[in-house]
Amino acid sequence: MRPEKLVVKALRAGGGRPMTVGELAATLEVDGMPEDRIANVLASLVRAGSVAALPGEKYIALKERNLLIGRLSMNRRGFGFVSTPAGEIYIGRRDSAGAMHGDTVSVRLNSQRSKEGRSGEVVQVVERKLTSIVGVFQRHGGLGIVTPTDPRVSTDVFVDLKRGLQPKQGDVVVARITRYPTQHDSMQGAIEEILGKPGAPGVDVEIVIREHSLPTAFPAEVEVAANSLGQDVEGELARGRTDVRDILTITIDPTDAKDFDDAISVERREGGFRMWVHIADVSHYVPWASTIDEEARKRATSVYLVDRVIPMLPEHLSNGICSLNPDEDRLTFTVEMDLDKTGLVEGARLYPSVIRSNYRFDYDSVDRWLAAGDGYPSPESKQLIEDFRRVADAIHTRRIARGGLDFDTVEARVRLDDKGKPLEVVVRKRTVATNMIEEAMVLANEVVARHMRDAKVPMVYRIHEDPDPDALGQIAVILKEFNYPIKEIHGATPQTFQKIVKFAKGRPEELLINSLLLRALERARYSDILSGHFGLASGAYCHFTSPIRRYPDLIVHRLLRAQLTKTLGKEPTASMVGELEWLTEHCSIMEREAESAEVTSQRVKLTELMSAHLGEKFDGIITGVMSFGFFVQLDNTAEGLVHVQTMKDDYYRFEPERFLLLGENRGAVFRLGQRVRVRLLDVSVSERRIDFEVVTARQKLR
Questions:
Q1: What are the pLDDT digits (tens) for 54-68?
Q2: Domain boundary residue among 98, 127, 156?
């Protein structure tokens, strides 16, 4: 039998379980096929589309050739999208073939595009993501049913109650999956944990943690490895690390920050400035394939929930020897830049360094000092901060001039008491101080990316592709309706977006236009292939400045060090380079999962906070329009639904191409971006649901 057929047969004999080269070699030992030969055959089969390569150097045989492989993200309404190298593929409710949220699947493309874009159907589940389900338990005789709390999981779990834990009716439980659903059989499982009643303190966030499969503790061996680490500053200096401890250095972070991974130094020079961006040198302590690295790689990011942080690295590293605490020597990686008065980088040096932060500042204090012109702790800190503002303003002006987008954004955080009860919503807006740090970090990231691009070496980039053409077509309809001077935006550049934003500024439809522009933008992601960043109007960009909390930054540090020392072809970096493709995909996926968990945890507490305000009136903005009603976001960022059933004054017709509901008799209109006044009708904390009804709306169709 041909080697290709032998390998495929062995893969299929494994019951659909992904296998490594070593496992295949053991299976094919009787056929006398060595591992290097198997590896070559697998590479050929992957290129032919008969076998899929998975993370961890595992392989699986595909049921058909030339299928697309990707991760399935389900929507609460039953449909989903598969992220593949060819882009997002829409999967209808009936086309998932038993696949669940988070699964890696193979997809067959449909010949015709649907209204959602490219569509397809799942052919097989390549790898399961979920191993357990969190849900509400209900007893039916001798049988238990767990209904998932996560709306992205639509299948109940049937559990046998003859053995194991015995939850009470209505308890929130975690069920380990023992059998996955098929077209003919339900999902089965066993109760492995009882969290408590839905309203019990702390249960709500525990549900979010388990819905997103977030780790709650580090393995013992990881903690032991981390706690054994120390820093040898003098030894590192003797080995050639640059000493910049004599340069005045500060950190600026949120008031409640516990880890500091970036620091700034600025000096005025003739004709411009010299700015140093110092970043914690995590790669010095966490080499590739170490015990700590394997856990950090799995997590890929820190997760900032409403009541806690789930860190990527153990505390001894994240809040200890890697954190750039004031008055302590720290190992860093420095980007030193010479800039002219317009913010143009005239030269840059990248090198491992040792710093000693002189001051730990927070955003609120810096904003207050800059506004008042005094209050600084020392004359030298005043000089540094004011020079930093000048250079940051120049960098910002230059970035906007080349086409970088600059949308105003807000961040809402629910403040809790000691028992986890929500007290208020704190809305954080961009300020002068936050913009200063943002501009410095963006520039440092760009300088590193350009350096690696010009060196023509392996790299992990942060890319942001051009806007979706279909979404641009939807915007064109609205621009024409409002008689904008820019009506044709297919193939739009960042400068085109800028012109639209500028024209909309202060006009009644400003919120509508900004919402549509944001929706048209693709999601930024990580890639080992160079591509531009549309939002920043940058030809090369990366993430370098947060290695304590983002794994891609840690990869970039390792690659940069190897490039500077000419060791890219040596271990352990050489092994890491071979994994960059799946690492970038994995990190992009985990970033989205972390963001979803963060948003959900805030929504849970925000919903609980709103439950104390039933019957009260609020002002808000329409953020989504559907055939069944529209969603309204309040000033505190709480979002709820106005269902058409509550709109009894007229019959409302949905016009999707114009993002509005139109009253057929009275002509009242409710459209995306419109301000409305609503009354809070109902709140369900367990379902994270808020319902409103309209009180007043003044807009009519123009």
A1: 777 788 887 777 788
A2: 127
